What does this fold into?
Amino acid sequence: MIEVEGLVKVYGRRGGKRALDGVSFSVPKGDIFGFLGPNGAGKTTTIRILATVLTPTAGTVRIAGHDIRADSMEVKERIGVMPDEVSFYPTLTGLAHLQYYASFYGIRRANAKRRAEELLAQVGIGDVAEKKVKTYSHGMKKRLALAQSLLHDPDCIIMDEPASGLDPQGMRYFRDLIRFLNGKGKTIFLSSHLLSEVEQLCQHVGIIDRGRIVAADSIENLSSRVSVGAPIVLRVTADGVTDDAIAAVSKVPGVAKAERTPAGVDVTVEAGSDVSGEVSKVLVLAGAKLKELKSSERSLEDVFFALTKGGRV
Amino acid sequence: MLIMIIVLALIVVGGAYGIGRGSGGGGPSGPPFVVWTHPSIGPSGHHVAVAWVSDPFGSPLSDTNVIFSDEAVPPAVQLGTVATNADGFARLDVGNRTLVFVQARTGNAEVGTSVSIRDPVDNFTVEMHQDDLDNDGRFNDVGLHVLTRAGQPPVARIYLNQTYVTAADARGYGRVTLPPGSSNLTVEVAGENWTRQAFAFESQRGGPAFASGPDFVLLIMAFLFATFVIPLFAIVVTFDSVSKERVQGTIDLLLSRPASRIGVLLGKFLGTFVAVALPVTLVNLAGVGVLTAVSGKAPTGSFVLAFLGLSLLLIAFYIPIQLTFSTLAKTSGTAILFGLLVWLAFNILYPVITLVLSSLLFPNNFQAQFRFAQYAGLGNPSSIYQQLVTFAAPESLRFSFGSGTILSLSLVAAAGVVWFVGTLALALWIFNRKAAD
It folds into this structure.
């Protein structure tokens, strides 16, 4: 659905800030694609280019098979954009906003009103449709921003921080709605600071850092990739772990470190070693009563920090 | 915007009322002599420019130097200086020239006018000058000067409202006093008639009897009020039409819609144009209405229509300029500052700089200074508007109130088109490049 190849954006004339430096990734049709990166990494610039607001300095972007420069009108017809900043005309009502934006898509006046009312009701702000936007709360504006992005039933929805600034209920509402839209076959391009949200929703992610894509793959593959070569921690839950038992575990070949925990012991294993069987055996022989042994998994957060050199999200 | 409309109405409508009711002083106005110019054809078929110089009462002034210059194509060429004869006439063979500038000077007083000589020249031509010659405080005395195609005074009979009044004297001069209101003046030479309408205010109203009554007031309205106020109104309405979208963050949503940037900016242009044009037209019509009510006579219909139309053109000149600056401005404060600078630049600085430059470049040469100012005015939308208003004004007002022009209508109109198309193209180009920055 979205194919980005060698995208470059330089602000200003020669010597200006290079916000994007050869960004490439692709988003399959029907996917929920998470787009992550520290502040200033180039996320918003990428999104503004995808939304046809900014013109790239170099590179190509194709959405639904249409080049954003050559066929920008075709692209605009197929995308819905929900920007991070929920900015509207303060003296217009929510309904008037949607009717105004509908006029760009050639939707007839009567149809536009009906469609706008339906959408406002669908996103949960039907009761304030006739009120001026300046009276709306942040959450209401977020819902209005979502409604305007769905006006023309686009194939692809580009969302920049859809849940930022929302309370837990609002965040959950947006998560459910994104799943619902995806279930109807919509491709979702989701930029978010909330890694847990991305982890729950997305099949694939792209991570951008300092204008370059440092990773673009499924979350599973990224976790595995990051895990290779990194030490693994075995979390052992057991009763009766004595100091002698910990000392014995420390001496098992492949074990880097063994530390007592309230639940038992954490065993740090050298990369490439499989010591779980030997550790279990040593602990049992030392008189410990073993309850559980599991290796810790790498979260998206670990992946993110590993790939962005600990960059702030 | 409402405040701006009220200010606009106060200035234009109030101006129409104020000038319409203003009273003139007694006695002749203007310089102490009048230069009457006529086109004529000499015995060899050459064009001859004829100037008759008299005092305001029709007595000829002899030995007055009259300078004839060719103004048709710059640079101006001085064709010759001729002293008036005992009958007050100065004639010069100007070859096949069609537009000649005529300048006469006596003491500190100087009068400049022009004569257009285009074939075929009429069998006789008439010049009019309306003034308060009997010192009764009313500008209802009309002097008429008649010459034949050969440049000689004919036997001419003068009628006022189809009633014979007097005959032109041996030098072609005759005088009539107008009754209040509109009158028809007719000059008959060898069975051929020339008729013009003239107007004098009702005496009890105490208003000034300008050369053509309300037309002259309308000309003042166009020059003094519309030229300054309409651009200011257009700028105030337009100043943040793009910058505000950026400041309040709605520009991204707008630009991601399926509309080209050219379409978006043209939409903004049209929306702003209508928002400015509607109140301006209503206020202008109200001004004309008040003027008509005060003076008791409506201005010439075609002049009113031209005034209304040219006011719209003036709006169309300024909106693209301000759209450009609104696109470049990062904040609304910067945008309004740019707008005020644009207004100051074209309405105050440009004319002052032109005046200073013309004085420096052509010291003591009024004619060259005037010509320089006219051509320099093509670089200023307000000046273009004023020159177009001059063309639209009744012929008798063309050189009154400093509104004369030596430029051709086609040149001024072309400058207007270039201004509008050029500034609109610039606004589109800048918007296309900078709107999302």
In short: The two ends of chain B are 28 Å apart (CA to CA). The CA atoms of residues 187 and 422 of chain B lie 48 Å apart. The longest helix of chain B spans residues 261-295. Chain B touches chain A at residues 248-253, 255-260, 436-437 (CB under 8 Å).
